[in-house]
Amino acid sequence: MEIIDAANILEEGGGIQQDLAENRINIGVTQSAIISFLFDVPAPRQRNPRMGSPTTSTNTFRIPDLLESWPFERRLNPATDAVKTQNEAWTRSLKLNHGQLERALQKAPITLIAALTCPLVPATSFQTAADAMTTFLIFDEISDQLSESVVAGLYEVIEDVFEHPDKSRPIGECFIGSLHRSFWNRARQGATPTFVKHFPTRYLEYAKSTSEQAMHRDESRIPDLTSYMALRWKTVGGMPSFGVTLHSLNISDDELSDPKVRRLESLAQDMLIMANDICSYNVEQSRGDSHNAIAVVMHHNNLSLQNAIDLIAQMFHKSEEEFLTVMETVESMNDDLCTYVSGLGCWVRGNFEMSFEIERYGLDGEARRGGLIKLLPKQTSN
Known about the structure:
This protein is mainly α. The chain has one domain (about 5-375): Farnesyl Diphosphate Synthase, CATH 1.10.600. About 60% of the residues lie in helices and about 0% in strands. The protein has a two-stranded antiparallel sheet.
């Protein structure tokens, strides 16, 4: 298989830098001070160069081990069991009474996802993480089926909730309003000023971007990879997810806006997008959803499925290597900022691992180990 230079796909300035290959620093022989602050882990393993995946047919594919050299290991938050009970009770109190949402929650066990992606946060913040992911999933399931104009209306409801959290929601309003009001009033309790200030901004940017995604869906339009990544950077929900880790942290605006910290956030976002799109592609293609990096490069670059996956994996590893390099250069971090940056690394690990541990994407341990996966047939509408 011809190896395609992923740097030629994206323009300079996004999460993938075109000059990485020219300015590569060997990160495999050092252990990050940030990692060692919270983890007792070995140095990152050297990754052997790959010339594509083993042979596959047109209706099978393999998912490469994207994290074979990632130093942040799989962990679960120790408060998982207690928070699971609390989150389930809160979800029941919402009285969704909606079969599709209930099935979606069953396929994506919220507390497990939160435990994998937020292993370092204390119990109170972990409760907020689980509630936030419940809110994300419900909004995502609803907005995925709606037109641009309807999703834009939901955004206005959510914006009003964050601006006026103590105001009762109007009778007859979509339950999205009461859902977000309940979540935000619970989340604010015991939260730091850093979280209260930054989480709404991050979440609203994510919610607003879903209307643009709905527009692309309405038009059946497949953007080029640069345009796709720019939109996906917001729709993946990475920034509000990272924002959950701020719940117990006090970090100044200057520290959060430091160019290196922002770069780490951007690179972590890129890795979330690429890993998620690789793992979710099979389910999404079966229902005709082309809002996926794999579908984009297959369409615009005339690639086979496996070649497209391998290309996105190459891009992932470029972001991975730059993340670890930048992390080594961040100086004078206090404990809270160090915890936040480590939390980004945990999110990258948890996001990939959970894809094989929940029903949502139809993947299992064999797929995680690089086994062949059969392409799902296209769904037909009744």
